[in-house]
Amino acid sequence: MSDEYVWFEGIPFPFVGFSPEHLRDIKENFVLKDEDVLILTFPKSGTNWLIEIICLIYSKGGTKWIQSVPIWERSPWLETSKGYKFLKDKEGPRLMTSHLPIHLFPKSVFKSKAKLIYLLRNPRDVLVSGYFFWTISNLVKKPESLEQYLDWFIRGNVAFGSWFDHTRGWLSMREKENFLMLSYEELKRLEPDELNSLLEHSSFQVMKENKMSNYTLMPSHILDHKSGSFMRKGISGDWKTYFTVAQAEVFDKVFEENMADLPQELFPWK
Ligand code: PPS
């Protein structure tokens, strides 16, 4: 089987698009920026679905980007030689995807505040999806039967190695505040009707009218409801209505003194 994969540190990779030299360079030298967003998955977990969702969020629901740029250019795969070359020189915040197990991931991940999104999927479905995908691809050794693929999968002799090691490895990051775990199954449960309802009911106007959420139930000795409302305006930039020019300058200075060393892309209101 070894001639059907590119091997790096005991992990099999597809033999097209990957090289041990690049994989080593990525692990040792690729530096994550705090403003990067990374989609991390074992192959066939719904990676491309999540990329599409994130691209649509970036585009505020607009479809121009997803309909004009191939998905692998919108969120390149870090570990492919092509993706690596593109990403390492790209300026500004980067969106990228990776199937790498954590022990082969750039070491900078452990110090970085980059947003890490790990997408899980039931490994049985990952297995079936992988079986059909690798059968039609020319990237790895083709399985001859599901039974054979199941045997490879259980032993970790499939592209990117053991699902169990991959998942255990990445889940060790789950307590970190820049790590978000999602699952294919949860995404699947979000029906369009539910999403519409979520958007409607979390809107400012609807929350303002929901007495279970608008704090009008809070006793008046704690909140003086006659003088104002907890659900005040719910807009961005209202400070401009109230700050004088002098106050704005003082605040700018204090902000600069305290926050200048952080990547300014972290502050989306600028
Ligand atoms: S890859 O090759 O590792 O990047 O593949 P990946 O994108 O992780 O997984 C492919 C499976 O995801 C399914 N898929 C979707 N499911 C639901 N909704 C949407 N929009 C969607 N897009 C892709 C795709 O069909 C593969 O799963 P299976 O079970 O094979 O259908």
UniProtKB/TrEMBL annotation:
<protein>
    <recommendedName>
        <fullName>Sulfotransferase</fullName>
        <ecNumber>2.8.2.-</ecNumber>
    </recommendedName>
</protein>
<dbReference type="GO" id="GO:0051923">
    <property type="term" value="P:sulfation"/>
</dbReference>
<comment type="similarity">
    <text>Belongs to the sulfotransferase 1 family.</text>
</comment>
<dbReference type="GO" id="GO:0005737">
    <property type="term" value="C:cytoplasm"/>
</dbReference>
<feature type="domain" description="Sulfotransferase">
    <location>
        <begin position="34"/>
        <end position="262"/>
    </location>
</feature>
<dbReference type="GO" id="GO:0004062">
    <property type="term" value="F:aryl sulfotransferase activity"/>
</dbReference>
<dbReference type="InterPro" id="IPR000863">
    <property type="entry name" value="Sulfotransferase_dom"/>
</dbReference>
<keyword id="KW-0808">Transferase</keyword>
<keyword id="KW-0963">Cytoplasm</keyword>
<dbReference type="Pfam" id="PF00685">
    <property type="entry name" value="Sulfotransfer_1"/>
</dbReference>
<dbReference type="InterPro" id="IPR027417">
    <property type="entry name" value="P-loop_NTPase"/>
</dbReference>
